[in-house]
Amino acid sequence: MSTNVLMMKDVTMQFGGVVAVDNLSLEVNKGEIVSLIGPNGAGKTTAFNVVTGVYAPTNGAVYFNGNKIVENYPSGKMKKNYAGKENGKYTKRIEPTPDKITALGVARTFQNIRLWKSQDVFTNVLIAKHLRRTSNVFTATFRLNRAEENRQRKEVEELLKMLDLWEVRNELCTSLPYGLQRRLEIARALATEPTLLLLDEPAAGMNPQETAELTAFIEKIRTDFNLTILMIEHHMDLVMDISDRIYVLNFGALIASGTPGEIQNNPEVIAAYLGEKEE
Amino acid sequence: MNTAINSKKHKDYIIGFGLLILLLGTITVLEQILPRTSMIFTVLKKGAIYALVAVSMNLLNGFTGLFSLGQAGFMLLGAYTYAIFTIPVAARPQVYQYFDGGIIQFTIPVAAALILSGLVAAFFAYLIGLPVLHLKSDYLAIATLGFAEILRAIFQWDKIGVITNGSNLLKKYPVFKSCLFYFAVAIICITLIVLLINSTYGRAFKAIRDDEVAAEAMGINLAKHKQLSFVISSFFAGISGALLAIFQTTIQAKQFTSAMTYEILLIVVIGGIGSITGSCISSFLFIACSEWLLRFLDDAKLNFSSVQIFRPGFRKVVFAIVIMAIVLFYQKGIMGDKEFSFSRFTQSVKKLFPGFKKAKVIKSKSEGAAE
Amino acid sequence: MEFLQTNLPYFLAGISTGGQYALIAIGYTMVYGILRLINFAHGDVFMAAGLIMIYSYTIMPLWISIPFTIILTVLLGFSIERVAYKPLRTAPRMSIMISAIGMSYLLQNFALYITGGLTKFFPSIPWISDSITIFGAVTKRVTVITPFLTIFLVISLVYLIKHTKIGMAMRAVSKDFETSELMGIKVDTVISSTFIIGSFLAAVGSLLFFSNYSGVTPTVGAMPGLKAFVAAVFGGIGSIPGAVIGAFLIGICENIIKGLGWTTFSDAFTFVLLIAVLMFMPTGIFGEKQTDKV
Questions:
Q1: Which member of B138, B145, B146 has the closest CB to residue C93?
Q2: Of the candidates C21, C6, C42, C29, which has an alpha carbon nearest to the alpha carbon of residue C212?
Q3: pLDDT per residue over B3-29, tens digit each?
Q4: Of A152, B230, C12, C276, whose CB has the highest number of CB atoms within 10 Å?
Q5: How would DSSP label each residue in A68-123?
Q6: How much helix, strand and coil, in percent to the nearest 5, is found in chain C?
Q7: Do the Cβ atoms of A232 and A42 come closer than 8 Å?
Q8: How far apart are CA B157 and CA B136, in angstroms?
Q9: Is the Cβ pair B138, C97 closer than 8 Å?
């Protein structure tokens, strides 16, 4: 329990009649890379959105470093339609906005890259440091916060150098090749100084070589930044190579969990998602 | 590479600053030689006022991405605050003649009144912002428009006439004839806005504009920052309202219609959403065109046939067509989302003279060969 | 009986203005439903119809000028869409809204130019503008006709939307623009039809409105336009019955407020209603909630 960085318990997410996430419980321990896999529409990104506070779950709770950060139970209207289990177990409403959860140390990237298109690479990462500021609007406007500004710029510089983005720091982020944009989004997430990093399909659209580079990259940042990582991914080579454990989702529900070896041989997973090996 | 950009920027700032001093100097000289009522001063004063409110609207719409149409309401608040608190006590019985001189029987210094006009507008913005800022852009526009109209109705209400003089004019408050006053206030305020935009908070605003989901995910509290932008923008809109009151020497709530907000919006669009220098430039252009230039289009004497095309009002029609043309074809406006920079300006001028460039290339080539 | 006598005129005026607002509101709600655009120029199209009627009446008899006005107004609405909105369909939302505002500005200034700033007076259409007495209250016949005509037109429109091909196309486009395009629906035709219907109703509304309040100024369309939009928001943007109910509500309350003597606030009521709706019931009474996918 104490090495548990993230724990989701009985999380259900229901939109009207559609159950996107069905009673999901999972945990991620310190320093692990855990993958969340499953067919499209299985509810993986929705689960991310619950963890990061974009959606308040219909039912269930999320714990970060042992502290409960999200909790909810079905309200009046939803009670009628609620198809899930674990009724009555959750009694409080804790619905923080995403920025509060990021401030605690949880950062994420997006399935479709969401960079700030009008800004260059350096600024994209610098903006992500804004939440760690202690200055207010007045001290910032009257430039009384020079020390803090310079310190943060230095931190961004170091981060960009570590991630091999320093060369392109003045480029508009939209002019970067796709792979670099994805790396920039990760750099931006790292700038918020997280302990838990949620990667949503980081290898999407990459060829095998780029994927191999990404694999090494993710392992590198885990070590360099002392991170715990939860990743949604479809590229099975990346998933199997790098994950300590894997959770498999189908139609919003957990159908299997275990080490890469166990998952690869799990018949249910093969039937739902992985497919038979070609002879 | 970074230092090269920085020194270019520094050069731009210095040149810009120099131009500003030049401008102020020119105005001072003009005020000595031209009569007070000259049209040029009207354009300059009104231009400065609208430049300030346009920049404040740009802060909100262009830099934070919040489409608000409430500017006229905040100008109204600022104008009235200034007037109410600076009308000399001796003049109050005459101004507030239907309300027994009104209940406010003191005045505060002009500088304090200016700041207060901003604060009152900011306060109302804070109240309005709470329920409204999370709405989608079109709904936000209509809601803020609605609030501005409600304010306009309230300020004409007789029941609070003891403060606002109901639907009657407010007058006799201290005014300033010199352009320099308007420019001084406008320049100070716009400088503050520029400082804000280039600070970490300004960057946070731009992040909200570009992608607020990502901004929130990176730890920027949307509600707080939107409120901040709204309140600050309204603060400066309030001050510009006070300036307008000073310029007009009388004010009445019913002039602060949504049409006024639309004009400010058009100024912002023409200048370029997201460009402060654009808003300033287009403000002066807009005021010049609507007050001064193109007046000949209204001159009936220009008609060469029995068809009276040129008559009063034609100017505004041509003007409106030009605006539509800009909106449709020139969506980025004059400056787009870039600021006017002297170095870029000289670069584009240089492009017009290819001979100049060729000579330079030949020169450097020969120098290179010589090595 | 006296209560009725004093208040009936206000109530009648209420359902009459309500009906006129409803005809304008339908234009707003239909356009917003399909294009997600608040057509700021719609109120000015309403005003333009009034002016067209006034000017055409000077050169043609009533029975020609009425259809002429309607046709010209429809043409105007159609052209505005083609010129000012169609080119900006792929532009960011703000651009198209600014275009609508610019169009409104243009129409108002053009009207100002044509009329020279003088208030023009709408011709009295015989029989409609005649005074009649109901239960002792004196009013114009048009105030009684308006609600019935409005309801008839609304029912026809709802029938059109529910039971014709073009109506189905309209519903499809307002649900999902891109998919409708992919499914082969001629989106341009649908959008043009929307504007044509909206302008037609605005023209009819203007005939009724100005038969009652005969002064036409360049800015006369701004307030009714804004109120009609609020009615549409109240009813749930995209819902025609909702917009109609909202419009009648605004018309009635507005006139009740006038009757109570608070005339300065009759306009403000509309905005208070708007704020209340946006705060407590943003999707309106018949609207649908939409969740954004992250």
A1: B138
A2: C21
A3: 555 566 677 777 777 888 888 888 888
A4: B230
A5: EEEEE---HHHHHH---S-TTS----B---HHHHHHHTEEE--SS----TTSBHHH
A6: 75, 5, 20
A7: no
A8: 31
A9: yes
Q: Which residue has the tokens 């309403």?
A: C46
pLDDT in tens, C77-134: 999 999 999 998 888 777 888 889 889 889 988 998 888 878 888 887 777 777 777 6
Which chain B residues are within 8 Å of C103, Cβ to Cβ?
Answer: 324
What span, in angstroms and rounded, lies between the C-alpha atoms of C99 and C85?
A: 7
Q: Which residue has the tokens 């019935």?
A: C148
Average pLDDT over residues B311-336: 79
Evaluate whether C232 touches C246 at the Cβ level (below 8 Å).
yes
C102: which chain B residues are within 8 Å (Cβ-Cβ)? 266, 320, 323-324, 327
Strand order of the sheet with strand A59-64?
A18-29, A4-15, A59-64, A67-72
Contact call for residues A258 and A246 (beta carbons, < 8 A):
yes
pLDDT grade, residue C143 (50/70/90)? confident
Look at A97 and B199 and tell me if their CB atoms are within 8 Å: no
pLDDT (0 to 100) of residue C172: 86
| Count, residues in chain A | 279
Q: Encoding tokens for residue A181?
A: 């944009």
Shortest CA gap A88–chain C (Å): 27
Question: Residue B206: which of A103, A118, A188 has the nearest Cβ?
Answer: A118
For B162-219, the pLDDT digits (tens) are: 788 877 888 888 888 888 899 999 999 999 999 999 999 999 999 999 999 999 999 9
